[in-house]
Amino acid sequence: MFHCVILFRLKEGIPLERVRGAREALQALVETMPGVEYFTVTHNLAADSAGFNLALFSAFESRTACEIFQRHPEYQRVWRHELQPLVAAHVTAQGEASSGA
Fold first, then answer.
1. Which of 3, 63, 59 is nearest to 30 (CA)?
2. What's the pTM value of the predicted model, to 2 decimals?
3. How far apart are CA 41 and CA 24, in angstroms?
4. Percent composition of the chain: helix, strand, coil (DSSP 3-state, to 5)
């Protein structure tokens, strides 16, 4: 299994409705995209969030499935039109799950 976490720092003054719309648009992709094992978008509740207030947690069948998802035109559309206008910064972490650890 391949894991991908993206933390987003939202721009100041973004209305909650816009954030909710972006979250729903991202979540809707899961139902139409192959290779996605787990996908959720939530507010980052970590005490030391460094201002990254929205988190996308996902797991894929493989690294290839994750790469296909991120290049897919629907993901790109949601990123450009729904999420990117709200985001001041983002950081990504990825890793392969191993059965021995």
1. 59
2. 0.86
3. 8
4. 40, 35, 30
- φ/ψ of residue 88, rounded to 5: -85, -35
Residue 71 belongs to domain with CATH number: 3.30.70.100
Give the amino acid at 30: V
Helix (H, G, I), strand (E, B) or coil at 25: helix
Residue type, 61: E
Query: Which residue segment(s) compose the domain that 24 sits in?
Result: 2-95
Q: How far apart are CA 76 and CA 19, in angstroms?
A: 17
5, amino acid identity: V
pLDDT in single tens digits along all 101 residues of the chain: 999 999 999 999 999 899 899 888 888 887 778 889 988 888 899 999 999 999 999 999 999 999 999 999 998 999 999 999 999 999 999 999 876 55
Is residue 82 situated within a structural domain? yes
